[in-house]
Amino acid sequence: MQFARVVRYRKSILIATLAIAAMLGGLYYSTAKRAYQAKASLLVLQTGSDVTSTAMSPEGVRQGLMPTYERLFGSAVVLEGALRYLDPTQRADLEGATPDKWQHILRANLTASTQRQTNIIEVAFRSKTPSAAVAVVNAVLRSYLDFMDRTHKGTAGQIIEVITREKTQLEARLSAKETEVLETRRRFGDLGIRAGGNVVHPMVQRAISLNEALVKTQQKRIELQASQSALQAALRNGEDLRPQLLSLEGVIGREFLLAGFGMGTRDVESQSNLEQTLLESQAELRTLQGFFGPAHPRVMAVQDRIRITSTYLADYQSRLDQKLLGIRDKQLGPMLSQMVHQRLNETWQHENSLRNSFEEARHQAVNLNGDMARLEILEHDLRWLRDLRDVLLNQIANVDLKQDHGDIRTAVVSEPVLPSSPVWPKLPLVGVCCLLGGLGVGLVVIYALDVLDDHFRSPEEMRAQLGIELLAMVREMPGAGTGLESLQVYQSPNAAESEAFRTLRTTLGLNKQETTRLVISSAEPGDGKTTVAANLAVSFAQSGKRTLLIDADMRRPGLTTLLNAKGQHGLSDLLVSKTNVHESGVEHIRTLGLEGLDFLPAGTRRPDSAELLASNRLAELLAWAESRYDQILIDSPPGLAASDASMIGRLVDGLVLVVQPNKTQRRNVLHVVESFTALDVNLLGVVVNRINSQKTDSVYGYNFAYGYGYDYGDSNTLKGGSDPADTLDIDGDGPGRHDSQLNDNLEKRAA
Fold first, then answer.
1. Closest by alpha carbon to 107, among 69, 66, 136?
2. Among 149, 160, 226, 416, which is disulfide-ready with 137 (CB 3.0 to 4.6 Å)?
3. Of 501, 586, 495, 511, which is closest to residue 542 (Cα–Cα)?
4. For residue 665, which phi and psi values (nearest 5 degrees)?
5. Based on the number of CB atoms within 10 Å of its own CB, is 49 exposed (0-12), middle (13-18) or buried (19 or more)?
6. Nearest Cα residue to 592 out of 543, 549, 529
């Protein structure tokens, strides 16, 4: 997918290579010489030492002599004979060549190949004219057939007499075997059904069916015996016999049970029909209620029918229960015992009958298998004799036909046809070659350019290769200068460029980890970390948080210069001071004119800045600042330029890496991320800086994140720290200034 995006961006290169390939292909197609091809097919059969054999053996011929027969078409003797068959008017391809070159020209344009898994050789010749192509193929075939006839001619010999004598003896044996087979079939009544077929002999089928019925009857008898034992136990124990009715219903049958109580099958059918009618009426009522009101005549009629049917069924069940209650236990026990006993006797009789029938059928099936085996042996002998007779007859016929032929037989199976169109150049093939060539060259060029471009090309690629989250993407901000007024978020808080810092602020605020103390760094100088840190600090201050901005880049204090604090005492002086951190902090921290935002400059430049940052004094300063401020932001040197960012990163909650895709090399960003990870620095994510609204040559795909535009109103509303919205708390620090505004932004992005 990444390479597809690369191809989409550099599609002009692909279009150019396709256009060049199309022009070259068109030039070749218009200037190439036309070639016409004629084809013919030749069948080659090999008999070997057995001159009576007519079997076609593609494997044997191809592996043995077929390569030789192919090469013979290009031999000097065949080509020399073909030249004798060609008229001067049919030698268009030989014009301008000396006679000693003619065979070489024919051999270069002649092809002979064996078709796969066949004994057929396909002969083709390419020529300048269609008529010359057909003439050369015919001449080569004639010369080849003459050569094969002269080389492989022979006779079959006097074997017909021997084969005829063998055939006569075989026919006598065959007649006797056929008579024996017919007599055996009549003896045991063969129906023509054989083993291995899909049809089972009726005797075998009858035995199988009787066995299945016998097994089912035995299962039924066992169930009846179990029910009889349970019923007798209940009678001995004086238990209530009515629960036995449900179990006996599945054993002796519902109809049989009802008949024992004087109720016929018509009562059961009537109840079933009424229940079916009730269900249909209820379904009809639900359908009608979807179209008519409760007072509609059709609805009322269906309701009456449902009520009458339900009343009748309830009365029927009540009558049935009363009838069963009227039967006393002394009467119910003997009745149930008699029914089970009667059913068990019937099952015993049925089982004995099935057992006798099965034994008889099994005996017949066993006898049948013996007869069938004897018959199959006789039929096998009969088929063998018939096959042997057919072989002898085929040999006699082939020998008669081959009296004047040798062990190699050839025949033309397809004559050459006058070609109507040239075989080369082919427009579809040239077009496909141009398309594939243009695509291949274009993709190779695009891939080479992509490999040489050592920059991140998309947010997805950056996230995948770095393994960290993308926190925000900051547009390239216009303007320059120094002081608080030069910061985009302070100068134009409602601009689209400022929205990225509020997004970054919200992302950090919603992070699961603690983000009170943050260090801002980059891989290389000039990536914009100082600008990001300053604007992010203004955004935090505008949200109502007391924010401290510290310039810890004591080597090149860009933040100090940006905020017009150059030459003032600051961090370096605080770190070397022997006074209390509280007193030094109050002394060196400056206000910037924005409520809630304080600034600690870099201070006096010193050569031992790394040693100062590694001292315990910095940790004491951060602990003191955390007790006074809601948010602490530290601008540190680039990660590749010095180790200061790593030392500070181990003391704070996390580090935010600023990357400028148009400038920063990919390998440098990977290296600095690996170094931060190796030193256990909590790398929260990446801020992509200076994204152009239009695609550039080196980076593309970032501009999609800024496809929106809206206006908050007066651009100066937020300069002094006031904010028109005060509704929902997104930052987690109470109802804030931009919370409602940020909600609107997030809702618009989601839409």
1. 136
2. 416
3. 501
4. -80, 145
5. exposed
6. 549
**Per-residue pLDDT for 711 more than 70?**
no
Which of 94, 67, 89, 82 has its CA nearest to residue 141? Answer: 82
Distance (Å, whole) CA 471 – CA 655: 12
Distance CA 232, CA 512 (A): 75
**Average predicted confidence (pLDDT) for the chain:** 78
State residue 143's pLDDT score. Answer: 92
> 63-107 pLDDT, tens per residue?
457 888 888 899 999 999 999 999 888 888 888 889 899 999 999
Torsional class of 253: left (φ above 0), alpha (ψ -120 to 50), beta (otherwise): left
117-126, 174-183, 198-207, range with the lowest pLDDT: 198-207
Question: Are the CB atoms for 672 and 656 separated by under 8 Å?
Answer: no
pLDDT of residue 729: 38
Instruction: Provide, rounded to the nearest whole percent, the portion of the chain with pLDDT above 70.
Output: 76
Opening angle at CA 292, ends 287 and 293, nearest 5: 120
pLDDT digits (tens, 9 = 90+) for 272-290: 777 888 888 888 888 888 8
When pLDDT is averaged across residues 108-121 and rounded to a whole number, the result is 88
- Give me 527's structure tokens: 């990536």
Q: What angle do CA 194, 198, 204 make, to 5 degrees?
A: 65
Q: Which residues, at least 6 apart from 100, have a Cβ–Cβ distance to it below 8 Å? A: none
HSE-CB at 559 with a 13 A cutoff on CA atoms is: 34
pLDDT score of 183 more than 90: no
Rounded Cα distance between 590 and 537, Å, is 14
Which residues fall within 8 angstroms of residue 553, CB to CB, at 6 or more apart?
530, 559, 602, 635, 636, 637, 644
Distance, in Å, from the CA atom of 680 to the CA atom of 694, rounded to the nearest integer, reads 38
Nearby residues of 121 by Cβ (< 8 Å), 6 or more positions away: 41, 42, 44, 66, 69, 70, 73, 112, 113, 114, 115
**Cα(675)–Cα(637) distance, integer angstroms:** 14
Nearest to 410 by CA among 40, 37, 110, 39: 40
Cβ burial of 166 (10 Å; 0-12, 13-18, 19+) is middle
Place of tokens 């009322």: 300
Q: Which residues of 271-285 are buried (b: 16+ CB within 10 A; e: fewer)?
A: eeebeeebeebbebb
Q: Which of 443-452, 528-537, 609-618, 727-736 has the lowest mean pLDDT?
A: 727-736
Question: Tokens 């009969």 correspond to what residue?
Answer: 382
Ramachandran region of residue 468, left (φ > 0), alpha (ψ -120 to 50) or beta?
beta
Q: How far apart are CA 328 and CA 341, in angstroms?
A: 20
H or E, element range at 180: helix 160-188
SS3 65: coil
What distance in Å separates the CA atoms of residue 267 and residue 273, rounded to the nearest whole number? 10
Residue 533 CA to residue 541 CA, distance in Å, equals 12
Residue pair 533/504 in contact (Cβ under 8 Å)? The answer is no
Extended beta strands in 77-149, E state: 110-114, 120-127
Q: Which residue has the higher pLDDT, 193 or 419?
A: 419
Q: 668: closest CA among 639, 704, 627?
A: 639
DSSP state at residue 110: E
**3-state DSSP helix/strand/coil percent for the chain, to nearest 5?**
60, 10, 30
Residue 53 has what pLDDT? 52
Q: Which of 273-282, 409-418, 502-511 has the highest mean pLDDT?
A: 502-511
3 state SS for 517-561? EEEEEECCCCCCHHHHHHHHHHHHHHCCCCEEEEECCCCCCHHHH
